[in-house]
Amino acid sequence: MLSEIHLLTDQASLWPVSGHQFVSLLRLLLVQSHLESGSATITTVTTTNTIAIALSAELGFVFGPVTGGGLDLAARLAGLLGALLIQLVTALVIALEMAWDTWWALVLGFTITGAIQEFVDEDQLTDYLGDDGWREIGYGTVFGTASSSCSFSAVAMTRSLFTKGASAASTLGAFQFASTDLVLELALVVLTLLGWQFAAAEITGGLIAVVVLGIVYRRFVPSSWIERARAHARALDETECATCGMAAPPTDEETITRTFDGERRYFCCGGCLNAYDPADDREAVTAGPELLSGDRWQSAIANTMSEWDMLWRDILFGFLLAGLLAAFVPDTWWTALFGVGPEGSLTRLFSNVVLGAIVGVLTFLCSVGNIPFAVVLWQNGVSFGGVLAFIFADLLILPLVRTYHRYYGLRMAGVMFAAFFAAAVIAGFLVELVFSGVGLVPSPGTSGGTVPGAYTSLFNVVTLPLFAVQVYVALEPDQRVRLGNRIAPYVAGVLYHAYDLVRRVAYALESRGLK
């Protein structure tokens, strides 16, 4: 039973205190914003000298009948606007807190990914992925974890490997899934926002999903379908980005065109242009002087910035969407959506993983960008397995499904959708059963990463200059000169004022007899 708090506000007393009626309404809204969602209802009673306001913590805010003419209507509208602004500020604060918690993980993850892409020769991957055996599927999983975490870039790389003769099980299944759901930066973000149990479950569930995909492509997809899809991909006549392989139509205003050694190259974004190396036929290295080569590490940094350029919109949108959902959507809505079946039953578990995958399809978020949304789902009662299924469904968003259709044809696009959906649901379901059995599922709704706040602040302070250096190195020489000319006066001013402050302090200490 919800408790009711009756707030009676005398209309005559408002004027001497604030001078305006809506100020008091906003004060009431501030009180309401601190109530737990769904735990209380604020109502007022209308009398001759009293304004009636009805605020429901369940529905957000609903204004009841207010009498008194146009001023009362203006007060109601002002109160509504105030409540909306309060919720928007709350959403922004939640988004900023998530961004702060994950900043160091993103910088570190993208830095390592860029280095791996530079020092691992992708052209040799096809030699390891030619068959559909479990060894090749294992290779595909390992190579996928070392590739780009951008879903669209991973899909383009998968197509390149598949057209060169790699098997469907090792590329369309293992490589593509691992390149988005088993990459380092994703695990770090899960660790910081959801905790180590979710990070362990994400890795365990990812491996289960790879096994499911391997079974699907090896046992249930006819070889004739696979070869027809390969022929369709090879016959696809479109201009591709010279770096990541994504579509880069020359007529698209976002496509960048450059000429190298007399040949024209097209790039889908500025990050790919900076990451492109005309001498990209250099062999992979694991030891020796090449690992210390400045040129190689500059290319690695360019790869890192390419990752940022491809993913920052998804990440930013993910944080903002998570904040808005946490601030505006009441708990009862989530309960109504995911509360199918008795609590703790297999019906509830299975319905949650299926609905989690469906929500993942509809969010249009991919890879790292959907983790903040996963936090909101977990905090609002979605099951452990349901959250994992949501995370694993990032390869099912509609823009990617359209890409599957364009690359491989309608039939194989349907096979890929069904395979990824089944893998997400089965992995989420089995991981929750196993983790529940060994007591590794955290308390429902609790969240918060494993990394303490002090360490988070320290890591962020360390990675911020690292990111600044990466941005500077990735710039063109003329851009560096312009940037240096712009910031030089400000840096000189800071240094001068710092010197002047030290001089004044030293003089003050000396004048008091201190040296």
Automatic annotation (TrEMBL):
Keyword field: Cell membrane, Membrane, Transmembrane, Transmembrane helix
Protein topology in the membrane: Multi-pass membrane protein
Pfam families to which the protein is assigned, alphabetical: ArsP_1
Compartment list: Cell membrane
Parts forming coiled coils: none
Record GO cellular component, one term: plasma membrane
Transmembrane segments: 75-96, 103-120, 140-162, 183-216, 315-337, 349-375, 381-401, 413-435, 455-475
Domain of life: Archaea
Main location: membrane
Family according to the record: Belongs to the UPF0718 family.
PANTHER family cross-referenced by the UniProt entry: PERMEASE RV2963-RELATED
The protein, known as: Putative metal ion permease
Natural source organism: Natrialba taiwanensis DSM 12281
